[in-house]
Design goal:
The complex is a heterodimer of chains A (about 280) and B (about 190). Chain A is α/β, with parallel strands linked by helices. Chain A has helices at about 5-20, 25-40, 40-60, 90-100, 150, 165-180, 195-205, 215-225, and strands at about 70-80, 130-135, 140-145, 155-160, 185-195, 240-250, 255-265, 270-275. Chain A contains eight helices and eight strands. In chain A, strands 2-1-3-8 form a four-stranded mixed sheet. Chain A has a four-stranded mixed sheet with strand order 4-7-5-6. Chain B has six helices and nine strands, in the order βαβαβββαβαβαββα. The chains are: A alpha/beta (about 280), B alpha/beta (about 190). The interface between A and B is large, with 54 and 47 residues.
Chain lengths: ~280, ~190
Amino acid sequence: MSTLNLFSVSDAVEGIIRQAETCLPNDVIKALKNAREMESENRARAQLDAILKNILIADNRTIPMCQDTGILVFFVDIGRDVCIDFNLEEAIRHGVKQATKSVPLRPNAVEPLTRQNSGDNTGDGLPDINYSFVDGKAIKITVAPKGAGSENMSAIQMLKPSQVDSVKRFVVETVLKAGGMPCPPTIVGVGIGGSFDKSARLAKRSLLRDLDDMNDFELELLDAINSLNIGAMGLGGRTTALAVHVEKGHCHTASLPVAVNIQCWANRHASVILEAGND
Amino acid sequence: MTEHHLTTPLNQDDIKELQAGDIVYLSGTVYTARDEAHLRILELTDEGKPLPFDLEGAVIYHCGPLMQQEGGEDWRAVAAGPTTSARMTDMTPELLDNYNVRAIIGKGGMKDIATVLKDRCVYLAYTGGCAALAVDMIKDVKGVHWLKLGMPEAVWVLEVQEFGPLIVGVDALGTDLFGEVMDQAGDYFIKNI
């Protein structure tokens, strides 16, 4: 058991950033291999072969699989029995700065209007940290680096309550408009309900789920998306998306927010569980 | 699907041989340029000032690489895959009207670009996200311009060897593979969803 302090947390954060940037989770690799096996188009096969080769090189050499090392999104689950007597946010920010040098990461954080690059992947509101409280005496930190190619193709719509049947159309239309731009095959995260911003957060969090884990509605959406035949990198082919994940939340009786967060094939995320030591 | 091995600088005859769907392996010099570099190039062009690099017969790579420089050493590429070309669509006509850029490497294609490229330039698709794979084919970093724009936005001069496989996404004869795929997808959507 490790002692929880600013340094142990920032070192652990640096470690999961390195892992996420250089090594894809097994469920994603498995889905990409399946897509390769199912593909009959030569051009799509060539894209998937390159992706699988790239994943191996990055893992073997511990280098980032994509030059867009993303902005760093964290989900922190804090056990109710944990005593945090240090600045947790500062520890995470410090871990990001360390990783920027040691992995290394491309400095991606810029002031939105001047476009001035901060140089260390931190800034106002970056890294993006989401806290929630859970049972237990451990802290689970998950990092999900998010690239801009796919993020830029994401969309949100405030549907009318009478438009429940239009949810599917909006999701598929968003993938259609994205075409080859978000580096397909993608993972499509859908947030339904909540509020304007909550729906987007539901969509983002859904990207962390195991890709095999899909219900009937999600499989129906996946089938509709893959019928578009946009294919790997938009060059045509059977697999436009590897998975669709939907998360729902109750919303106002007058609202139906739907957010679609598109994730490129590099569905990078990694976690660490830190347990409080002696108590 | 013919395979071509080309060396920069490219001329008009080189690219007229290429047909949409062909595979290309490229050797020589490529210049990375994305949003800010395009703006800067067009700004200098408007002011009638020369660029600090030569785009005659050049290849532009839509890429914001992850580079590393340890101590006083030379820069080296750590990860250098393509970025989304669509962001450069509006700036590409003016770029091609002023400079004889013969090939653009990127990902995702550019909407309605076939008429802009016709007879003078090709669009080569390199697999998005394959940044570690790309580094194996970058033999040298020959220089960097406008580093003050930030690492991703600067113009990096890369020496590449057998860089590929690149798929001819848009040829100089007017065929756009991305456009064809999207037209079919759009038709399916209208009829079925």
